[in-house]
Amino acid sequence: RISAYIEEEVQRRLQGLHRVVGDGSSDPADTVKDNEKLHNGTIQRKLKYERMVSRSLGANPDDLKDPIKISIPRYVLCGQGKDEHFEFEVKITVLDETWTVFRRYSRFRDMHKTLKLKYAELATLEFPPKKLFGNKDERVIAERRSQLERYLRDFFSLMLQSATSPLHIDKVGLTLSKHTVCEFSPFFKKGVFDYSSHGTG
């Protein structure tokens, strides 16, 4: 749209200059130079503007291929006694915004159950099962970390493609942001489920 507008403006000004030349009031060679100056100036402004817009929107074509990156780099032991539990650090990057939340396994499960009711296609995702024993075993937790990470990646991949999802890439496109993701589910909001010393539970 902007490109079309700029092109239209260049054409309009060029026609104005041609009219002046038609009057015979100036040298055609000067007019050609003026034309070139005007055109080059407009091109420069256009390029500068397009660079500015693409930077502010983070609209790198590669970003839009993979607009949400998610990982679970580690887990931490929290609480004491009966309340002792592991929390997983969830690192989320949406275009050029990155933030981290800490969540325990039950929060992942709650999110999955809630959103599965809204978006039937989530039922096809494999969610790491609840274990009756070994919840505090390091090997079990390490395995669960990688399963939850895989789950979240598949989850976003599905939600960005699902026609019913508010995160569908054709709906949000360049307006995709941290805010969009946090509105989609409080699971991703920093400061929600505040229990532990890490800020979230």
What share of the residues lie within helices? 40-55%
Strand order of the largest sheet: 1-2-3
The dominant shape is: elongated
Q: What fraction of the residues are assigned to beta strands by DSSP?
A: 5-15%
Mean pLDDT figure: 76
* Cα distance spanning the termini: 46 Å
Uncertain ranges: 46-61, 196-201
Q: What's the number of helices?
A: 7
Rg calculated over all Cα atoms: 27 Å
The secondary-structure element order is HHHEEEHHHH
Name the structural class.
alpha+beta
Largest sheet: 3 strands, antiparallel
GO molecular function, one term: phosphatidylinositol binding
Domain PX: 66-180
Protein name: PX domain-containing protein
Pfam family, one: PX
Describe this structure in words.
Residues 46-61 and 196-201 have low confidence and may be disordered. Helix 1 (2-22) runs antiparallel to helix 2. A hairpin with a 2-residue loop joins strand 2 (85-94) and strand 3. The chain has a 3-stranded antiparallel beta sheet. It has helices at 2-22, 28-57, 61-65, 105-118, 138-161, 169-172, 178-184, and strands at 68-78, 85-94, 97-104. The relative contact order is 0.12. With 201 residues, the chain is an alpha+beta fold. The protein has 7 helices and 3 strands, in the order αααβββαααα. The longest helix is centred in the first third of the chain and has 30 residues, at 28-57. This is PX domain-containing protein. One of its GO terms (molecular function) is phosphatidylinositol binding. It comes from Moschus moschiferus (Siberian musk deer). Residues 66-180 form the PX domain.
